[in-house]
Design goal:
single chain; alpha/beta; Rossmann fold; 2 domains; six-stranded parallel beta sheet; three-stranded parallel beta sheet; 10 helices; globular; binds nicotinamide-adenine-dinucleotide
């Protein structure tokens, strides 16, 4: 029978352990989220992050700019880098087109980079060294681990090669000794690849991209996609039909999304530990 990989349940259970660890720290953990412009989805994500931080005694400040420049943002970040009371800094993506996203992200101190998107942290992930891992990739690894799903030697297909999700996930799974195939918009005959996969992870942003005929019986499906159709949220998988065929599947909403938010909290504690020269692995 198909089992749901319940991200809400997993997040709540992991949060209890994390809260216990945070309670034992004498310093107050504090993060600053920076946003620019008027992205409606970003507003919801930030509201969620603030709520989750508050629930676990992490202070979450929000700096919002209707309009700004790359240089102004970098100035703000450099000030936060020096601020002793700021544990972590997160720039909500996407930024408006006039801003150089790469320069802005890389101006964050690697020790305060709770999203794990600076080039230094990405290089650490690439080299399988301890560092901050991007939240969605780490959330998926923790979700699979929570359900005791073995990764060693498994054939795992990721669909979507973004810097935010697909590429960090590729390295995270490789570091767990999985055999990973990374597919994208130019991949030919996707079905021939997904059909051979033990685990399929889709992060594209197209409803019903993964259909029943693309999935092997008893496979595991992780749906990262978030699509809004007539006010309802769905993922990239034709859930009703695919769910009947696989062993495990994530719902959307309630699968990867909650895990991504959880990792913001977990990465904040990791940043604090790194700043204190403590091990995070
Ligand atoms: P993106 O637009 O940066 O990347 C999409 C990727 O999909 C690209 O690499 C592209 O090559 C690939 N692609 C496009 N069409 C394809 C096709 N027909 N076949 C195969 N590959 C194709 O997007 P992103 O930032 O990686 O986000 C992807 C989706 O995941 C979006 O729906 C986003 O909202 C969602 N998302 C969810 C979470 C979460 O926590 N659940 C986090 C981040 C992103």
């Amino acid at each position: 029978m198909t089992k749901l990989l319940n991200g809400v349940d997993c997040k709540n259970k992991l949060k209890i352990k994390l809260k216990n660890k945070i309670t034992k720290i004498k310093d107050k953990l504090s993060i600053t989220v920076i946003s620019v412009g008027n992205n409606e989805a970003s507003k919801i994500y930030i509201k969620n992050k603030i709520k989750e931080c508050n629930s676990i005694n992490i202070e979450c400040k929000h700096l919002h700019y209707e309009k700004t420049t790359t240089n102004e943002l970098i100035k703000v970040i450099k000030k936060l880098n020096k601020d002793k009371n700021t544990t972590g800094i997160l720039v909500q993506l996407p930024l408006p087109k006039n801003i150089n996203e790469k320069l802005v992200i890389n101006s964050i101190d690697k020790l305060k980079d709770i999203d794990g998107l600076t080039e230094t942290n990405i290089a650490k992930l690439y080299n399988n060294e301890p560092g901050i891992i991007p939240c969605t990739a780490k959330g998926i690894i923790d979700l699979l681990d929570f359900y005791n799903i073995e990764l060693v030697g498994k054939n795992i297909t990721i669909i979507g090669r973004s810097n935010l999700v697909g590429k960090p996930l590729f390295h995270s799974l490789l570091n767990k000794n999985a055999t990973v195939t990374l597919c994208h918009s130019k991949t030919k005959n996707l079905k021939s690849i997904t059909k051979k996969s033990d685990i399929i992870i889709v992060a594209v942003g197209k409803p019903n991209l993964i259909t029943n005929d693309m999935v092997r019986k008893n496979s595991i499906i992780i749906d990262v996609g978030i699509n809004r159709i007539n006010g309802k949220i769905c993922g990239d998988v034709d859930f009703k039909k695919v769910a009947k065929k696989c062993e495990y599947i994530t719902p959307v909403p309630g699968g990867v999304g909650p895990m991504t938010v959880y990792e913001v909290l977990s990465n904040t504690l990791d940043c604090y530990k790194i700043q204190q020269n403590k091990n995070i692995r």
